Amino acid sequence: MNNPDAMIFMRDLHKSFGTIDAVNGVTLSIGRGKVMVIIGPSGSGKSTLLRCINHLEIETAGEIWVDGEKLTRDQTQLNRIRAEIGMVFQHFNLYPHLTVLENITLAQQIVRRRTKAEAVEIARQQLDRVRILRKKDDYPFQLSGGQQQRVAIARALAMNPKIMLFDEPTSALDPEMIKEVLDVMLDLVEDGITMVVVTHEMGFARRAANEVVFMDRGKVVEQAAPEAFFTNPQSERSQLFLSQILNK
Amino acid sequence: MAIKLIAPSVPSNMLNWNGIRSRLRDYPWWLVGILFLVLGTFYLILTQPTFNEAFAFIKAGLSVTLSTTFSAFGIALVIGLLAGLGRISSNVLIRNIATLYIELVRGIPMLVLIFVIAIVAVPAMVSGLNALGATLAENGLPFLAALFSGIENKEVPMTARAITALAATYGAFLAEIFRAGIQSIGKGQMEAARSQGMSYVQAMRYVILPQAVRNVLPALGNDFISMLKDSSLVSVLAVRDITQVTRLYTGQTFRYQEAFTTLAILYLTMTVILSLLVKTIEGKLRRNE
After folding, report:
1. What is the ipTM of this complex?
2. Alpha helices, DSSP H only, in B60-157?
């Protein structure tokens, strides 16, 4: 199951902050076009693990391969690989001094070296895809949280990434806005892009995931297909977690 | 009529009185005081021959004061940006060089620093360049050598030394402003930019700095005003700015009261106009938030 030919492959990954081991020996592989949903209690190391994939956090020990290439600390390689990995953050992190359209064209122009016209055309397509084209000339602060997150998704997609990483994309949203973001993410699943999603949305995990990974205290406790995981969790800790989250 | 019907509970004369009171309270009376001083002095300049003569003499230094301030501030902006970026660099050497520079400048009085830069540092730099020129000539690079040799100390005008001194001093102040501005931008902005494959430099240039500079514009404006005032210190190098020209004038005429009053009012006029400008920019920025 763990093989270096996967889109993402990590072997015995460790990440510690001082004396705290946020990720403590994780080996995982994510196949091309697959969707992996990582769940677990807060502080279990899910986000840190995700951020290691594009080296926003640099692992303390272990190895990561992305599309067959091992990540090093070489900045040139890192910038090239990061351009292939879209990332969506909990707090959107749109560029507040730029309009929606400029948010999406900036990296296309300076990283992908597209002309302005090309970048704008692609931005329009992606904004249309996340159903928010009419807001293209607004500034981020003029948008609702759900709209901002959809723009953030469009910004990532405009780079034509091979992989999309989602770091709790709906956790900062008001309940009525969660659905519009999840709907956009479900569309992406249909399109067959490789996705790694850290979320507390069990409904999304059930519907979209090829594989669910349950993490606790920096380790992978359980890894299974969503049906199996949600109906028949094997470990005691995942049973406890699910009972807490489903009965709340 | 309709308004009276809707809001009859507050008597209209009461409402007006409160409005006038709060207007009087918020009125910039200080500005009236300054205007009074400025206009009063200019009235003296127009009507009194002694004031008139002093003003005519002193205003010749205005162009030196303004050009020194503008060029020194321009250079200080560049130094400040580089030193500010250096202060937050992850490179130990760069960070320490930047910090050393800033602490050096902050630990020495500005007047002393102006002497040191003009009289110690610039000549040292000149002899350093000459030594470099000589070495290049010995090693058979006459073309490069010509660039670096034959400069003489006396060929470096005091105005250039004064500008160097002001720029070096204010570079350290502006560095701290830029550093604070950059650090005021959330970590998520850098992460978002880097996650899209931008290099550190690209992320700084296109994402962080545009936001940071906007945030520190009022602080930069205030430092520009401070520099305009501190440019009076270059008079110790005999640079003929308005302060130096005033001293020359009083030396010849002994009309101290007229000359120094005119000098003070000239600085006040310039700084008040600039600080009103900074306030306007500040208000505009806040409204666009």
Report:
1. 0.92
2. 62-87, 92-106, 110-115, 122-138, 142-148
